[in-house]
Structures are given as structure tokens and as C-alpha cells.
Write a structure and sequence with these properties.
CATH class: Alpha Beta
Largest sheet: 2 strands, parallel
CATH topology: Glutaredoxin
Strand content: 5-15%
Oligomer: single chain
Distance between the termini: 37 Å
Shape: globular
Number of strands: 4
CATH superfamily: Glutaredoxin
Radius of gyration: 14 Å
CATH architecture: 3-Layer(aba) Sandwich
Structural class: alpha+beta
Strand order of the largest sheet: 1-2
């Protein structure tokens, strides 16, 4: 339950960030095993970006490939898909965008 709370809190931050940062594209990959609950969260949290789900949860290939051991987990990429930040805090993301200005 705590992981869900943290993920939803991060989603709220990303919604605000997406409205303030021109050119920012967000893709959300969920490992939620409950499809209905995942779809309800997208609607409730107003996640207006690409959302995909791998219902295998922690056993999914993407979790293994990227060594995802907890949620939320984020990766910030530049326009060339170069990794900029791995699992950054909201503060680190904000600082990154502030430096671009």
C-alpha cells in the first residue's frame, strides 16, 4: 500500500511538471497486476500521457531488465534517449529543469 501511495504522489508531481515544461514527454509503465485498479488510477490522477502496463508485476521482463526493485521508479532521458537521471527525486527533477532555463 505504501508503494501505491508513493507512486500516486509522484504521478501528481509529474502531472504538474508536464503542464509547466514545454516539450516534456512522459511515458508511464505500470507493473500493477490489477488492470482495473490501474485504469482507475490513470483516470483519477488525470495521467494524460502514454500509459502501458505489464501485469506480471515484479516478475515482468522490464522489471528484471532495468533492475526495478521498488515503485515508483523513474528514468529521465534527453531527446536522444540518453539517460540523464536514474530514479531521481522530485527535487532532482525540478533542479534539472531549473538549470535548463
Amino acid at each position: 500500500m505504501i508503494f501505491e501511495l508513493l507512486a500516486r504522489r509522484q504521478a501528481s508531481y509529474l502531472v504538474k511538471l508536464s503542464k509547466n515544461e514545454a516539450g516534456l514527454e512522459i511515458v508511464s509503465i505500470s507493473l500493477d497486476e490489477d488492470r482495473q485498479k490501474w485504469l482507475e488510477a490513470i483516470k483519477q490522477d488525470k495521467l494524460e500521457w502514454i500509459n502501458v502496463n505489464d501485469p506480471k508485476g515484479s516478475e515482468s521482463s522490464i522489471a528484471h531488465k532495468y533492475n526495478i526493485t521498488g515503485i515508483p521508479f523513474s528514468v529521465l532521458l534527453d531527446e536522444n534517449r540518453k539517460v540523464i537521471l536514474v530514479d531521481p527525486t522530485s527535487y532532482q527533477v525540478t533542479e534539472f529543469f531549473n538549470k535548463l532555463r
